[in-house]
Design goal:
CATH class: Mainly Beta
Number of strands: 10
Helix content: 10-25%
Strand order of the largest sheet: 1-4-5-6-7-8-9-10
Structural class: mainly beta
Shape: elongated
CATH architecture: Beta Barrel
Order of helices and strands: HEEEEEEEEEE
Strand content: over 45%
């Protein structure tokens, strides 16, 4: 693991530890202020938004016959869900524009960037944590697609032009949520996303292999229940 990737990993762990400690300390006071939440447990429509950091990763790509070494990058996303505080189903969208180092025949060790847009159908389950005030444990499962597009060079480098590629993807997430009233909840989540991508040719010229590539994202956000 390179020094940059190691520093990014340590910063991610430190950020997650800090936010979870703050959430734990705030939970008892929050529970005293807001008390019972009947409306919070009713079915309704929820919207959410947030941002996070995707860890460094490597993508073997057939379209460019190259490796993309992705640097840590910022993710932005949101969701639309239906259900109660305990369980919801819905759709979550996430966008990442990742700086990368392109390692291929057409351009060796060139700087660039690529966009990854992911849309998932998600099932979310939440339950109170014992002895933790209003703190809740969250588990989320999803399946959908990741679309790669807008591969381009940076710092004067030119990269091959590619058509958008769409990969089957699925995800699993775990995290903590803190209700901030009857309709608002803050959360800290750790996501693992697996995308089935067409890999670059390894041996025979006509060989078209696919494989799953893993991405990890730490994200922080809030969700709001609409209506009465």
């Amino acid at each position: 693991m390179g020094a940059a990737a190691l520093r990014a990993k340590l910063l991610t762990v430190r950020a997650l530890s800090t936010i979870l400690l703050a959430v734990v300390m705030a939970a008892p006071a929050e529970a005293q202020v807001y008390g019972a939440r009947r409306a919070y447990r009713d079915d309704g429509v929820w919207i959410s938004g947030g941002s996070g950091t995707m860890r460094a990763a490597s993508v073997s790509d057939d379209a460019t016959n190259a490796n993309w070494v992705l640097d840590p990058s910022k993710s932005l996303g949101g969701s639309l869900e239906f259900g109660s505080a305990d369980r919801t189903i819905g759709v979550r969208v996430q966008r990442v524009v990742a700086p990368l180092r392109f390692e291929g025949v057409e351009c060796v060790f060139c700087d660039g960037e690529v966009q990854a847009l992911t849309a998932l159908a998600v099932y979310r389950r939440s339950s109170p944590l014992a002895l933790a005030g209003g703190l809740r444990q969250i588990v989320e499962l999803g399946a959908g697609a990741t679309r790669w597009s807008d591969l381009r060079g940076r710092n004067g480098h030119l990269l091959p032009v590619i058509s958008p590629q769409t990969d089957f993807a699925y995800s699993a997430s775990i995290g903590l949520g803190l209700p901030l009233g009857e309709r608002l909840e803050a959360s800290a989540m750790y996501d693992v996303l697996m995308a089935r991508h067409r890999l670059k040719q390894m041996s025979a010229p006509n060989e078209k292999a696919t494989g799953f590539i893993g991405f990890a994202v730490v994200r922080f956000g809030a969700r709001w229940r609409l209506g009465q």
